[in-house]
Each structure stands twice: as C-alpha cells, then as structure tokens.
C-alpha cells in the first residue's frame, strides 16, 4: 500500500468512491481505519463503570475524604534546588491555575523534612517540579496525609506567553485566568491505574467549580501521555462552544506511583515504568 | 598550561608545576605530601635509595590533628631546605581543607545524575507528538463541555433559543416540544423585561472583542424578531430569572451571520 505512488492512490480512491455510489444501498459499509486506539491491546485492569469492587475501593481510598467534601485542597508547589527563571515563572503560572496553592522556594531543604511540616500546616498536596538545564522536566505529585505519590516526566512545557494566539493583532494576547475555581475534565483514564491517577488530579482542585468563571482544566490521557490544558470556554449556542486557551500547558508521562508519601528508598511502589517490559508493544498502554 | 608555566602530571609533584626544580623525576632528593583514603602521608625520596625503585619513596603517616601533623612534617624534614618544608606544609593544608569540604558535602543532598538514552528520548518525543495529534484536544474538550451542558451540570445559567432547543429535543423526546410551545406564551412578558436587561448588560461584558460585534448584531436581530423564541429553559425554570451578570450568555441570532463572524476565530483556534 505504501509503495503505491500518490497518483495511483488517488485513482484507487476515486474508483472506490464511484463503485460505492454506483451500488447505492448495497454498498458494503465503509471500512473503519485502524488506529492505535482501536488496536489497543486490551488491558485487563480496565475499569468498567459499573464495577462494584472499583466503586468500593474508591470509596475507601485516600481520596474519599476529598470526594465526600470533607477536605478542601491546599497545595504547596515547590521546585528542586536553585530554580531557573523559566521554572520559577512556570510555578507562578501553575499556582494561578490551581486555586488555593502556594509557591515556596526550596533552599536546600530535604523533602523528607518538609513533608511533616506540610502535614502540620494542613496542606493536602505537594507538587515538586524538578528542573534540568533550566527547563522543568519532572513533576512529583504527592497527596499529603499519607497519600500516593506520583512521579511524572514533564515535557513540552509552554508558558502563557508562548501559547500563540493566532487571532488578529488587535485582540489581546492569551488571557489570564481569574480567581474562580475551574472545572476539571479527565479524559480517557480507563485502567485502574489511570483511575487512581485521575483521582489524584481531581483532588487538586476544589470540588465545587464556579461555573461563573467558565474555566476548565483538562487532563487528557492519550497513549499514556497526559496532556494538561487550561481553557476558558463560552457557549455560543446549544451546539457550539468556543474555547480560548489560557494558562500553561504541559504533557506528563507517568513514571512511578508510590503508595505512601515521597520516599525514594523505602517507599512501596505500586507501579513503576519498566522500560524493558512495558515499552515492547506499540499497542499496549497502561493508563 | 598557563602562559608561562606547564603543569606537571606526575602524582608525586609537590608544587604542581613542571620545572627543573620541582620535578620528582629530575631531583634525586624529593619530598611530597599525598593523601590516601582520607589520611595524609609524607613521602620522601633520597639518593641512597635511588637504586631500589621499590623502596624509593619512604612514607610517613601524619597525624589527624592539624597542628601535630605540621610538627611531624617539621621533625621529619629537619635538615631539608626551608622552601621545601614550607611547600609541604602548604600542600598539606590545602589537602586537609578539601577533605573537610568533601565530608561536608556528602552529608548534604547530592544530585544523582541519571543518564538519558538518546534513542529512548527520541522515541518518547515522537510518540508524544503522535499522541497529541491523535488526541485532538480541542475537539475533545468541546465535546465534553457540550455533553456537560446537555446533562444539565450547569443548571440554568445558560439559555438558548428554542430553535436549537427543539432540534436537540427531536432527537430525544417529542413531548417537550409541546411543553416549550406552551412556555413560549408565558415567557412573552418576561422576555420584554429581560430584553431591556440584556441590552444594557451585554455591552459591558465579553472577553472577546469579536463577541462585541456579535452582540450588536444579535441585538439588532432581537429588535427585528418579534417572536419570543428566546427562552429555552432547559431546567424548566418557571419564572425564575437566571443568574445575572457575566454568566448570562444569551445568544439569539441568525446562524448565517454568526458563522461568518467566527470562522476566523474557530479556524485559528483549531489550527
């Protein structure tokens, strides 16, 4: 198929279309193109929406208090040592996106020591943005009172300025988020692992979004890459909605998930990305 | 290599420079201070042992105490020239200082370097790009938002013209059509009030400037269209005025004009 030249392909396509029209109703149904998502190897841990066990688990896991609205999230964002300008700006923008979040700089403090302090001051989540060669490249998200810790690799970080707004020049640059609580969209988190990661993300945002603000934060999982976007939407009609991107954007790839809080030596890992075993098939995804 | 001096690569060199006078190979009498595994030793070379390479360098362990070690250097090099003794002590001082620094640093957190693999990096990058294309994020987000609108998560903030409402309903159930017809008449009065409200209000809203144009055009149409096909209260808010202020986005308008306006906007957003 690939070896056919362009003209041959076009000709073949035209012929097929003509045949289809000629046959009318008897034409065979259109062939569905194969995509990676179609061909995905079935993962046995895929969550069925009606699965009782999963529902029970979720009712009793570490996020239950959040989902029952007993706790209000309070986030601490910090970086690795000596953050460079880009990372600092990214942290600031992230803190505008996530309500009730505070940025603190880390001057050489060990993570193991700041965690008890955070718990004492009532923080629910800790985000550490790791930096390498002046760009942020890693994210550690830790749910504090003894919650799971997820370690991600972060790539293609775009700050607010860099999100190009291809509207004519007279319109303003990409806008700023307001103080309203945004909604959260979690797309495509199918497996058990994906579910727990999704809940982690959801627990960063307060549970009651303010629809007045019309802002939405999206975590979209596609082939094990989680894309984060932050938009402002507006319903132009019943069937049409316009979105304007504001706020930073980045992609995450899950590297490991630990049961307890951050502890590299003694932690109990629930999932680690093992390259040898997990990257062998192009159609197998874990989130 | 500086402009005037070479550096000597020999490990037994005292000063570090490559001169005739400070080369351990060139001088048959030589002394150095070297450290091994955190302990400092004084190494001495004399003429008498020049014939025995194995016994050439005599090694003396220096005490861990800084002052005591300096005294030991002095007593061992008692008949050696002052310059060499001085240099030895200087070297010893420098060595102890860097040993202290090493010990301090190991207590602090250290960066662990994890080597990246180029092939894997490239692979990951490419996969990410493809995933991004496959994801069609804008479409997905829009779809999700519309879904939520349909499922009424937003309550009655949004009102939409009954045309579109009917179209949407025809796919679902036929009953509500008659309901909305009945409501139409009710809403006549309310809408005249609200009409004024809307006109005054919408002008100072809007994030997008092209929305401004839209509003003016829609206002014109409002005046033109006498039909009250505005209030499509999905949540059946009978008589309840929806939220005021920036939440209100009533957009009654004719489809055709609207599309022209926003095509550039949607195109650029999707691009």
From TrEMBL, chain A:
A biological process term (GO) from this entry: maturation of 5.8S rRNA
Database matches in PROSITE patterns: BRIX (PS50833)
Domain called Brix: residue spans: 73-263
Any matching Pfam family: Brix
Subcellular location: Nucleus, Nucleolus
Keywords, comma-separated and alphabetical: Ribosome biogenesis, rRNA processing
The keyword Plastid belongs to this UniProt entry's keyword annotation: no
GO cellular component: nucleolus; preribosome, large subunit precursor
Gene Ontology molecular function, alphabetical: rRNA primary transcript binding
Region (Disordered): 13-37
Function as written in the Swiss-Prot or TrEMBL entry: May be required for ribosome biogenesis.
Listed name of the protein: Ribosome production factor 1
Organism, as annotated: Pygoscelis adeliae
TrEMBL record, chain B:
Region (Disordered): 168-271
Keyword RNA-binding: no
GO terms classed as biological process: maturation of 5.8S rRNA; maturation of LSU-rRNA
Biased composition (Acidic residues): 174-191, 199-210, 217-227
InterPro entries, sorted: Mak16, Ribosomal_eL28/Mak16
Keyword annotations of the record: Nucleus
Location within or outside the cell: Nucleus
Biased composition (Basic residues): 233-251
GO cellular component, as recorded: nucleolus; preribosome, large subunit precursor
Pfam families: Mak16 (PF04874), Ribosomal_L28e (PF01778)
Top-level taxon: Eukaryota
Residue intervals of the Ribosomal eL28/Mak16 domain: 3-98
Entry keyword Ion transport: no
Protein family membership: Belongs to the MAK16 family.
Protein name: Protein MAK16
Organism: Pygoscelis adeliae (Adelie penguin)
Lineage: Eukaryota, Metazoa, Chordata, Craniata, Vertebrata
């Amino acid at each position: 198929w690939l070896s056919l030249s362009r003209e041959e392909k076009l000709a073949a396509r035209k012929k097929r279309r003509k045949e289809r029209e000629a046959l009318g109703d008897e034409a065979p149904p259109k062939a569905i193109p194969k995509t990676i998502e179609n061909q995905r190897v079935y993962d046995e841990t895929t969550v069925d929406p009606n699965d009782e066990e999963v529902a029970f688990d979720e009712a009793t896991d570490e996020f239950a208090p959040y989902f029952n609205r007993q706790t209000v999230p309070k986030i601490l964002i910090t970086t690795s040592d000596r953050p460079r300008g880009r990372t600092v700006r990214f942290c600031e923008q992230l803190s505008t996106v996530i309500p009730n979040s505070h940025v603190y700089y880390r001057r050489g403090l060990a993570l193991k020591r700041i965690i008890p302090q955070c718990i004492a001051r009532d923080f629910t989540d800790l985000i550490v943005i790791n930096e390498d060669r002046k760009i942020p490249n890693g994210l550690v998200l830790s749910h504090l009172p003894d919650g799971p810790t997820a370690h991600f690799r972060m790539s293609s970080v775009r700050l607010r300025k860099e999100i190009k707004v291809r509207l004519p020049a007279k319109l303003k640059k990409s806008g700023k988020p307001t103080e309203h609580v945004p909604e959260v969209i979690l797309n495509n988190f199918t497996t058990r692992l994906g579910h727990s990661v999704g809940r982690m993300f959801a627990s960063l945002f307060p549970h009651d979004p303010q629809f007045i603000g019309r802002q939405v934060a999206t975590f979209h999982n596609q082939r094990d890459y989680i894309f984060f976007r932050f938009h402002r939407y507006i319903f132009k009609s019943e069937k049409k909605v316009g979105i304007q991107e504001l706020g930073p954007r980045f992609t995450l790839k899950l590297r490991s998930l630990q049961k307890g809080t951050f502890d590299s030596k003694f932690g109990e890992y629930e999932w680690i990305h093992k390259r040898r075993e997990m990257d062998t098939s192009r159609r197998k995804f874990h989130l | 290599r500086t402009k005037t001096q070479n550096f000597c690569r020999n490990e037994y060199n005292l000063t570090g420079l490559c001169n005739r006078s400070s080369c351990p190979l060139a001088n048959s009498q030589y002394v150095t201070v070297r450290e091994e595994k955190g302990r400092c030793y004084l190494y001495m070379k004399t003429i008498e042992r020049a014939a025995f390479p194995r016994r050439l360098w005599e090694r003396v362990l220096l005490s861990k105490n800084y002052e005591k070690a300096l005294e030991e250097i002095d007593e061992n090099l008692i008949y050696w020239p002052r310059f060499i003794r001085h240099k030895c002590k200087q070297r010893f001082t420098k060595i102890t200082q860097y040993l202290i620094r090493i010990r301090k640093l190991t207590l602090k957190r250290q960066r662990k370097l994890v080597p990246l693999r180029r092939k894997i990096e490239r692979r990951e990058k490419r996969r990410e790009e493809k995933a991004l294309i496959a994801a069609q994020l804008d479409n997905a987000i829009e779809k999700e938002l519309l879904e939520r609108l349909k499922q009424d998560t937003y309550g009655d903030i949004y009102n939409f013209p009954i045309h579109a409402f009917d179209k949407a309903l025809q796919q679902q159930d036929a009953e509500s059509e008659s309901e909305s017809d009945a409501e139409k008449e009710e809403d006549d009065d309310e809408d005249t009030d609200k009409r004024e409200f809307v006109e005054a209000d919408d002008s100072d809203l809007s994030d997008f400037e092209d929305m401004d144009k839209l509003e003016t055009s829609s206002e014109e149409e409002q005046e033109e269209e006498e039909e009250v096909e505005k209030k499509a209260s999905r949540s059946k808010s009978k008589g309840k005025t929806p939220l005021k202020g920036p939440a209100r986005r009533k957009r009654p308008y004719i489809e055709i004009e609207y599309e022209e306006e926003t095509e550039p906007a949607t195109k650029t957003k999707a691009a």
